[in-house]
Design brief:
About 50% of the residues lie in helices and about 5% in strands. By secondary structure, the protein is mainly α.
């Protein structure tokens, strides 16, 4: 991987007053923060319990309506986030009710990949890492491993050898979607690495390595910002252009996409050991942190740093997890390690203080003020199920040395 980074354009963390506020004298999470984190976990688990009783064997829709998630069957790209929350709750408490519910979901996910029900996209990693790879890691479930392997094979079908990428969405022969990769896919690649390790088949790992190389080269811009989506010519394999799908403009930086990058590059490093991914994640993290408003919770696109635009609490939760994953892979003497940890802790504390849904309604989201798809007007200033998941993951990361499901 030799991403086209212009080092002269990469900002340092100290360049922004807002970032200095979050990191000045910043230290890693310590006992002074433990009580607040414990309260936040207790509050989150209460919400999980309410929603477990509310949804039963169903799943929350991707985003809420008036702060309450409608119920749905296992058919969206987001269903794994709710199952992942159940596994996190099980890890936190050891309570059998969470495991029982998650194992019902595992059987549903097993059936879904067998039937190939709405699997014509790259989000199989979001679906199966959090539901089935997690189940296998925590319980040794053979059914979960079989389901995850089936999903990984479906994901591998989307790999294009000429471009080296995994096509994001749609029919592989659809000209409108052919050759499209998106930054989100960084989080789908761990499913392929897991499948390679589990099966011994190197094709999964090779495809993931090729895709992350393409993402580093073409989705990351020279200033450390990212495109949401990038297109390749599938006939020649050559790069075409970067665009957006959910961001403000093709040349702006969609906040959740940047957060996917901050989190995804170090998670892939966990599997392939390429230290350049850690350096790249630092670049993305610095760009992101230098564009935060005063409370440290990003606007939905990083082109906005103040004003009346909506915040995206879900992007902040993803970024917090990414910063914690990044920090633990830095040397102890790296001056940014403590800064990233402090920034992540500050974001989580701000989320728990001012962005948590305290109304306590069944089906209610954990985090308010998230954005699903601003240009299409979907889930704007609502709860988003991935934001809830990553908020709980961040709380878990702040309490222990945690083995990711990714």
């Amino acid at each position: 991987m030799t991403a086209p980074l212009n080092n002269a354009a990469i900002e340092t963390l100290a360049a922004s007053p807002a970032v200095r506020r979050w990191t000045a004298g910043g230290q890693a999470p310590d006992s002074a923060n433990a009580a607040g984190i414990a309260r936040a976990i207790e509050q989150a688990l209460a919400a999980v319990d309410r929603n477990l009783a509310h949804f039963g064997d169903k799943f929350p829709e991707p985003s809420s309506v008036a702060s309450v998630y409608p119920a749905m069957d296992n058919s969206e790209w987001t269903n794994g986030f709710w199952t992942g929350m159940l596994w996190l709750a099980y890890e936190l408490t050891g309570a059998q009710r969470y495991r029982d519910a998650a194992e019902v979901h595992v059987r549903s996910f097993h059936q879904r990949q067998l039937e190939r029900h709405n699997v014509n996209h790259h989000d199989l990693g979001f679906l199966y890492s959090l539901s089935c790879v997690s189940a296998y890691k925590l319980t040794g479930s053979a059914v979960a491993a079989e389901a995850a392997m089936g999903a990984a094979r479906l994901l591998l079908e989307r790999h294009n050898a000429r471009t080296g990428i995994i096509q994001a969405w749609g029919d592989l022969n659809d000209p409108a979607q052919s050759g499209r990769m998106i930054i989100d896919c960084n989080l789908n690649l761990p499913l392929l690495y897991w499948a390679s390790d589990y099966s011994g088949e190197t094709a999964f790992r090779d495809a993931a390595n090729q895709h992350i190389e393409a993402a580093a080269r073409h989705i990351v811009r020279p200033d450390g910002s990212t495109f949401h989506t990038f297109f390749f010519d599938t006939a020649t394999g050559k790069p075409r252009e970067g665009k957006t799908h959910q961001g403000y403009a093709d040349d702006s930086c969609w906040a959740r996409g940047q957060a996917w990058g901050i989190s995804g590059f170090p998670l892939v490093y966990r599997h392939n050991g390429d230290t350049r991914l850690i350096a790249l994640s630092k670049v993305l993290a610095n760009y992101y942190l230098n564009r935060l408003p005063e409370d440290g919770i990003c606007y939905w696109d990083l082109i906005f740093t103040e004003g009346a635009q909506e915040r995206d609490s879900s992007a902040a939760a993803i970024a917090a997890c990414g910063l914690l994953e990044l920090a633990k892979n830095l040397p102890l003497l790296d001056p940014l390690r403590a800064s990233y940890e402090a920034a992540a802790l500050g974001m989580v504390q701000e989320l728990s203080a001012r962005y948590v849904n305290t109304e306590g309604q069944p089906g209610g989201g954990l985090l308010k003020h998230a954005v699903y798809h601003k240009p299409h007007g979907i889930g704007v200033d609502e709860s988003c199920i991935w934001g809830d998941y990553f908020y709980l993951e961040a709380l878990v990361r702040l309490t222990r040395t945690w083995e990711p499901y990714w």
